[in-house]
Amino acid sequence: MSPSKKINELRSLLERHNRLYYVEARPEIADAEYDRLFRELETLEHQHPELDDPNSPTRRVGGAPLEGFKQVNHPVPMLSIDDVFTEEEVLDFYQRLQKNLGRKSITVSIEPKIDGVATSLVYRDGSLAYGATRGDGLTGDEITANLRTIPSLPLTLKTPFPAMLEIRGEVFMPNKAFARLNEEREEAGLQTFANPRNATAGTLKQLDSRSVAKRPLSFIAHGLGAMEGLDLLSEGDFRSLLNSCSIPCNEPVWTTDTSNGVLSAIRELGQRRLELPYATDGAVIKIASLSDRAALGATSRAPRWAVAFKYPPEQKPTRLLDITIQVGRSGILTPVAELEPVSLSATTVSRATLHNESFIHDRDIRIGDTVLAHKSGEIIPEVLKVITEDRPPGTKPFSMEEHLQGTCPACNSPIARRANSESKGRPVVTWWCENPLCPNKAVAALTHFAQRKALDLDGLGESVAIKLVESGMVKSPLDLFSLRIQELSDLLLDPARLQTGESSKPRRFGEKKAQLLIDSINDSKADQPLSRWIFAMGIPQIGESASRELSRLHKTLPDISSSKILRTISLLADLEEERKEVSPQNKDRPPLDDAERSARKKLHDALKERMQKAEEEIADYEVSSDIGAVASRNLIAFFSSQHGKEFMQQFERLGLCPESANFLPRPSEASAATEMPLAGKTFVITGTLSQPRSIYKEMIEQGGGKVSGSVSGNTSYLLAGEGGGSKRDKADKLGVDILSEDQLISMLK
Fold it and tell me: Catalytic amino acids?
């Protein structure tokens, strides 16, 4: 089979499995098989750059950062929809339709109004040409690179499809995924997002699509923009087209031709929307007939044939009885509001996250206050604000240190205060327990270590983890590898609660479950790759993507513990901070006189030179943004700590030696034989090229050359596309030869 045919076959197959997994929720193959197909396609595309396709499934991981979003004009204006807030206003709208169309029976559809970010997708000949934000309705930001990372959004359409199709829809973050994202950010001491829509909007504004690919975004279509090559008559025809093209569409939907039917539908949706996997804030009512829509037209801002009924936000007052503290696996202390039970979004809420001490201080939350509670994104209970006029006398501002009397609630060890990211111009204050043997940290670490995305240990849930720690059998995750079948079998778990409200006797773990867990632990020694082990360790800021990148750069865990790459990244961040501080242009600390300005400029330039040398040392590795300064510092701190050293000693005693499944060794001088066309040559790539830089980098390395990130006296050639800026100027200054793409290909031949 020719490479072209094989690549097209793999792309089609992967897109099919993407659709089955993300849209239809009926996967046919295991994750490992999908990964194998993905790697096979990735390898073929690298070997055959002439067959590049921007809509390949491999583009879903994101690409190089953009310098900015360009503006595009919408084929048809993206209008807003007028809002109504009462059932009387809904009836007025329906009566206007009857009057303007001159008939009593008007068929309309009713569907959820997704609380996401409005987006336009333009497909030409069945392939995604570009996607854009609403913007001002006439012009929006082109965000195609970010949209390509969304798994549920098809990059190519199933046949038959119109020659040109513009789909309007919402990009959103599913409720459960949003909750997990906030938990991860809170665990890392980062500022959490207020709601799924804010998280989605902020994600789509990022210029680095690789960062966007790590966020759990999804897409649902709900409207038609422009179209060529097909005639549709109704909303039903449009939905049939979406289904035939495998574009996810808005569900559920009601169709009715009476005003009472409309009211019934929005009431039913008002109940059912709480069960939907995404945030909704209303019901959209649209005329079903496309010809009727055209006849009614639009105002300057909104169509006359549609309206959005907005459900009132559910916020209820309740009393804050107490503030308790949870201990996460990294030791972060998270305050939790203990509330007088209140019904919100069809569930009884008695606890709500308070995120961190800064969140409490910003809202001046005090124990005993009456607070307004809601569900952020209709899933996460949260304290919205304090009703200060109902504040009882004698309440005091909350202090985490005073509340805990300076010690961890789980182990009574001293706690430490840290200021992390900033919010509203001031640091976000979090508190940590730094005792590595804290039992609450151990339980959280065990459940993280055993989860499916980590080592996938069968039968090790939270209840088992709690008892393993309480019994003293396990103090840290690596103790699992020393468990014996008999002691695990005899482990007594907490009794189950019966329907009568009474508790049964404590349950013995048992031989069968113990054997399954022991087998799973032993299998992980050989079966789980290095990336899974790195993620399982639970180091702050080291998620799945960062773990995969670390295993690409290092073959074993000891290699990471002594990594020169991580120390260089950390050094670069330190040098950059120092460079900004001493810069004569520092507005916060301007030079006192010319002598100081001259001295600081000299130091500033010396720091820049050191940074350039450090950048050259790791330029070969093309480290992704997943491994930045914070991640590098956390890794270095872990392996340098007493806990980290003990972990590595125990790791080696147990004979554990997981290896990377995606390690890419750097091309060495020894492997660059003298007969290779680019042997001994160093290249720098700049400007806009006809193909991604990664493809040219691989071509150069396969030809025996080396690719650096910056121009220096050691640079042999600058491969320059359109633009090039400072790198082209520096190459001219140093007398470095500048090549075009055609010249490079000629050299390779």
Answer: 113
Stretch (H or E) spanning 132:
strand 127-133
Distance CA 314, CA 742 (A): 63
Cβ of 708: how many Cβ atoms within 10 Å? 18
Whether the upstream peptide bond of residue 252 has omega within 30° of 0, thus cis, is yes
What does the buried/exposed string (b/e) look like for 244-274 if buried means 16 or more CB atoms within 10 Å of the residue's CB?
ebbbbbbeebbebeebebbbebbeebeeebb
Give the sign of the dihedral formed by CA 123, CA 127, CA 133, CA 139.
Answer: negative
For residues 275 and 403, state if they share a domain: no
Residue pair 551/661 in contact (Cβ under 8 Å)? The answer is yes
Confirm if 636 and 730 have CB atoms less than 8 A apart.
no
Tokens, residue 715: 């640079």
Is residue 349 domain-shared with residue 300, that is, in the same domain?
no
Report whether pLDDT(704) > 80: no
Pairing of strands 71-73, 139-141: antiparallel
> pLDDT tens for residues 572-598?
999 988 988 889 888 888 888 888 889
Domain-ending residue, one of 262, 279, 310: 310
Q: Whole-prediction pTM value?
A: 0.55
In a domain, 37, yes or no: yes
Integer-rounded Cα radius of gyration of the chain: 29
In this structure, the number of other CB atoms found within 10 A of the CB of residue 52 comes to 16
Tally of domains in the chain: 6
Burial pattern 539-548, b for ≥16 Cβ within 10 A else e, equals bbbbbebbbb
Token reading at 230: 């097909």
Q: State the chain's maximal CA–CA distance in angstroms.
A: 86
Strands 164-172 and 737-739: unpaired
Question: 511, 528, 545: which is the final residue of a domain?
Answer: 528
d(CA 301, CA 310): 18
DSSP state of 157: P
pLDDT in tens, 630-655: 899 999 989 998 888 999 999 999 98
672 has a pLDDT exceeding 50: no
Buried b (16+ CB within 10 A) or exposed e, 561-596: bebebbbbbbbbbebeeebeebbbeeeeeebeeeee
Cβ 398 vs Cβ 415: under 8 Å: no
H or E element at residue 380:
strand 380-386
